[in-house]
Amino acid sequence: MQAIIARNGLETPEPVKAEVKGSIPSWLEGTLLRNGPGLFSVGNSEYNHWFDGLSLIHSFTFDNGEVTYRSKFLKSETYKRNIKADRIVVSEFGTMVYPDPCKNIFARAMTHFRNIIPDFTDNNLINIIRYDQDWYASSEVNYINQIDPHTLETVGRVNYRNHIALNLATAHPHYDKEGNTYNMGTAIIGLGRPKYVIFKVPAADS
């Protein structure tokens, strides 16, 4: 099953006109953004789980009964580190990275330590979320990556921890009719019980 669903995708950086079977209402206009795993191997290394593949972002733009498609890999720090090393060097949900045998004993020990207490991957492959007028690729970690919804270029990474006292946040927030966004995170402090944090990102005119 893994061999069937875990095939490497390709970028389509320039819009391509889709073949439409049937018809699309002429009044349907806008862009649908989708996110998911798209790259399952780097060099000779492979991910062990479908949830680990590097994020590939897709857009479907509807205009006057026509559809154009484009896609780009999320240029996260995880993506850039893996591509530069030509192998998987950042641990994911189901893929644990082991130390490079070429490293000295101290560097290998630090790699093991980072795997025990990880600085989480920023491979945001789960969802596309909106905070005010900005769009982000997201997953269940403390990092989100802002994207340009028109070009699908990666704008830059944001760390929730720099703004809110939490360790993890969900990838599926909720929105109200005023455009405010509500999300929930988890704060793990010392040896105490985890705490749940519900936060609101207001719309610009709120």
UniProtKB/TrEMBL annotation:
Family statement drawn from the similarity comment of this UniProt entry: Belongs to the carotenoid oxygenase family.
Record-given protein name: Beta,beta-carotene 15,15'-monooxygenase
Keyword set includes Iron-sulfur: no
InterPro entries named among the record's database cross-references: Carotenoid_Oase
Cofactor: Fe(2+)
Organism the protein comes from: Characodon lateralis
Keywords associated with the record: Iron, Metal-binding
Record has Cell inner membrane as a keyword: no
One Pfam assignment: RPE65
